[in-house]
C-alpha cells in the first residue's frame, strides 16, 4: 500500500549522470514549488550544519529527479522529481530553509 508512495528511485552515490552544476542550475525545478525565488533561499545542511545559499549547493541533474548536495560534506540536502503522479520533494537531508519574505500585493 505504501510502496507506490515511496520516492522514485534515485541514485544516492556516484551513479548520478551528468555534470555537477551549482544550485542556480536547479532553481527552475524548485521555482514552481517554493513561494520564494529559490536563488534567494538559504539552506542549512542536516548533516554538517553549514548554511549555504541555494546557488552554492551542488546540483546533480539529468537523473531521475534533481539532487542538491551540500557543498561542504556532499550530503544530499534536497531532491525533487516530477512524475505522472505529481512532484516529489524530499528535503530530509536539510535542517532548515530560510525563505525571504515575498513582496505582498501593492
Ligand atoms: Zn553538509
Structure description:
It is a single chain. By secondary structure, the chain is mainly β. It has one domain. The chain is 8% helix and 37% strand. The chain is built from 1 helix and 8 strands, in the order E-H-E-E-E-E-E-E-E. It has one helix spanning 23-31; strands spanning 20-22, 42-45, 51-53, 58-63, 65-69, 76-83, 86-90, 94-98. The strands form 2 sheets. It has a 5-stranded antiparallel beta sheet with strand order 1-4-5-6-7, covered by helices on one side. A 3-stranded antiparallel beta sheet has the order 3-2-8, with no helix packed on it. A hairpin with a 5-residue loop joins strand 2 (42-45) and strand 3. The longest helix is centred in the first third of the chain and has 9 residues, at 23-31. The model is unreliable at 11-15 (pLDDT under 50). Zinc ion binds next to loops. Pfam families: DUF6510.
Amino acid at each position: 500500500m505504501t510502496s507506490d508512495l515511496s520516492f522514485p528511485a534515485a541514485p544516492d552515490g556516484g551513479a548520478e549522470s551528468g555534470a555537477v552544476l551549482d544550485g542556480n542550475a536547479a532553481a527552475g525545478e524548485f521555482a514552481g514549488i517554493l513561494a520564494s525565488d529559490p536563488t534567494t533561499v538559504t539552506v542549512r545542511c542536516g548533516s554538517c550544519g553549514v548554511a549555504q545559499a541555494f546557488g552554492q549547493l551542488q546540483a546533480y541533474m539529468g537523473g531521475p529527479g534533481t539532487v542538491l548536495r551540500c557543498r561542504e560534506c556532499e550530503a544530499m540536502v534536497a531532491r525533487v522529481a516530477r512524475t505522472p503522479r505529481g512532484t516529489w520533494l524530499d528535503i530530509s537531508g536539510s535542517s532548515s530553509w530560510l525563505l525571504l519574505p515575498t513582496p505582498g500585493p501593492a
